[in-house]
Amino acid sequence: MTVRGIxxxxxxxxxxxxxxxxxxxxxxxxxxxxxxxxxxxxxxxQAVGLxxxxxxxxxxxxxxxxxxxxxxxxxxxxxxxxGQLDAxxxxxxxxxxxxxxxxxxxxxxxxLGGRRMGDPVRLGAGGAEVVYCxxxxxxxxxxxxxxxxxASIEDL
Length: 156
Description:
Structural class: alpha+beta
């Protein structure tokens, strides 16, 4: 077996159309695939480890990366929403988006319905800058410009 890399991050949202609009506008992404299943869907249930699931999904593509968005209509959600979890909680906690200008990207997130969590911070002499914020659905986003201090997508 050879690992070729991380293919995509998957986010579950409560409004798929709004999420597609947000991420396409923020990251200049395009829709490359759509998926849908309605219970009973034994193969999909087997793959995702659920019973009686129904979902709609969209795969977005941009700049050498994919982002998968899902809206599940079944089963009923029982856990906490992402907006109730902070950066220190266990599990996948943020989606990092490399940008050229962190402050402009943060302003764009807020303009598109997201919210600030902190203020941009410069990291050392290498010109890197980072800030955490939330998308309109509660997911934590890390906006970062790498400068010469951090690994960049260009290094892949």
